[in-house]
Write a structure and sequence with these properties.
The chain is an all-alpha fold. It is 90% helix and 0% strand. The protein is built from three helices and no strands. The termini are far apart.
């Protein structure tokens, strides 16, 4: 038997065995319960970390992400209104120049 053929047979058998084992593991009730509890623990830890982060920002007098996003939005809207006002003033100035030119 060719050594490369022997290796391929061994590799195929190993992969099939590993696939059967992983399929049995993932489909098991214990695995599903473990993953469910791990996910719940992770979500709980993330929530606590976020609460701690907000408390630290508050204690330091720093704004939260929501407050910063709101401030950025308001600044963007103020800039838009200023640009609109500038455009209107330019249009009025052009119209005034046109009237004075007649």
């Amino acid at each position: 038997m060719d050594p490369s053929e022997l290796f391929r047979d061994w590799r195929d058998a190993s992969l099939q065995s590993w696939t059967r084992m992983m399929t049995a593991t993932v489909e098991s009730t214990e695995f599903i319960d473990l993953m469910s509890s791990s996910t719940q623990n992770l979500l709980g830890a993330q929530k606590k970390a976020r609460e701690l982060q907000l408390a630290m920002l508050d204690a330091a007098g720093m704004p939260s992400r929501t407050a910063l996003a709101d401030l950025a939005h308001r600044a963007q809207m103020a800039e838009k209104r200023a640009l609109d006002a500038e455009d209107r003033l330019e249009a009025l100035n052009a119209r005034l120049s046109q009237i004075q030119g007649k």
